[in-house]
Each structure stands twice: as C-alpha cells, then as structure tokens.
Specification:
Blueprint lengths: L7 H13 L2 E4 L3 E7 L2 E6 L2 E4 L5 E7 L3 E11 L5 E12 L2 H6 L4 H18 L3 H6 L1 H16 L4 E12 L2 H43 L1 H17 L11 H22 L4
Antiparallel strand pairs: 1-4, 2-3, 2-5, 6-7, 7-8
Helix pairs in contact: 3-5, 6-7
Length: 265
Amino acid sequence: MPDSFPFMPIVIFIVVVFILSGIRIAQQYQRGVVFRLGIFSGIRGPGLYYLIPLIEWQRLIDVRTVTVAVETQETITRDSVTVKVNAVLWFRVLDPAKAVLSVENYGMAIYQVAMTGLRNIIGQHDLDEVLKERDKINGLLKANLNELSAPWGTTVEIVEMKDVEIPENMQRVMAMEAEAIREKRARIIKASAELEASMKLSQAAEQMMRTPASLELRRMQMVSEVGAENNSTVVVVMPAEFQALARSFNEQITRQNEKEIKPPA
C-alpha cells in the first residue's frame, strides 16, 4: 500500500484535468447546442458553462447576421426575355436548436433556396417590372425565403438584387424606345409652348385693337431695342396707316396723269 502513494499525485492530476476539461466558454454571439449521449439536452451560453466530459458534447452556432452573395442566375422573364440576375442576402439564426436538428447545413440550404427562389420570382414578372420595381421583387423574394427557411430556425433580414443583365440587342431596342419617348415628350412640350405663345399673342392683338396708341408705342420700343444692340443697320417701322395713305395718294396721282395724257374726244 505505501508503494502506491507515489502514484497518487498523478491520479489526482488526471482527475482534476478530466473535471476541468468540461469547462466551456461561448462568446456573446455564440450559442452551444448541447447533446447528452446523442440526445439534445439544451442551449448553453453565452459565457461560462460546464459539460460533463465523455457524456455531453456541443456544436457552437454563430447567431450574428451572415452575408451570402447569390451567384449570377440566368432565367427567363414572363415576357420571354433572357436575363442574368445576381443578388445578395443577409440572414441570421433565431433558433440554434432547429438550425442543428432540422437541416444538415443551414447556410447551404438557404443559399440553394435563394437561387431557386430568385429564378422563380423573376419568371413571374415582365422585364419592365424587373427593372423598375426592384423593391417589390426584393420583398416577394424575402417573404418566400422566410417561409421556406422558418423550419430551420433562421430568418432572412434583407434581400437585394445587385445587377440585372439583359441581352445587347434588347439594350438597343430599349434605348430606341427611350429616345422615341423623349422625342415625343419634347415635341409635346414645344407644341404646348407654341400654343401658349399664340394665345398670348392673340390677347396682345386684341388689346392693341382696343387701344391703337399701344401699337405705336410697341413700334417705337422695337426701334429702340434695335438701336441698343449697336447694329449698323437701322430699321424704321412705318405705321400701317401711312402705307395705306401713300398707296391711295399714288393711285390718285396715277389716275390724274392718265386723264391728262388721254386726248379729248
């Protein structure tokens, strides 16, 4: 018996190490899914906790938000246009137990669901909707992913389409369409401006007809404006009454001359 005493410190040391080997520490963003003899026992952490050596083991789960980039997917819209779409999503684990017990690899599962869901959602919309209503499509995709990933204890927080690539010939057609729409808009604006200007001119003409003196003032203003530009050409505007008077006077002189030239019968 006394011969066994030299081994006692070694035995005590082994026992202490065995007991201390069950101490575990989980970070604030980690949760430990604990199994006891292969059966789910509970969730531990964050902080310091203890596992029974050789009986209990754990799997640490990160509960922070994870960013996943969905590779480019080639799909067809509802109006039969081939497009290439890529997206990015953010998800996190809400229930670590379900994330371990319900699916083998929850990250890969969400990635695959995101790829198929992206193709399905794009196939339900026209090209114009895909280009103009991204927020609506992102919302539908997020709802679809949350519905499918809920049994895995995860939630999708944000889904955003990064880029939509369309064929080059379709880009040319869309550019021609946009140019035609802008040209139409420009012509409508120009026609509206001409209509408004003609209405203003009509009102001005009516006002001048009621007050003939305003017409003479306008003519004098035009002369002063021409002179203010330092032009070498001076334009003198004669009133229309002077022109009519000169024309009648000329006609009267012509008739008088004809009477004088014509011999008496």
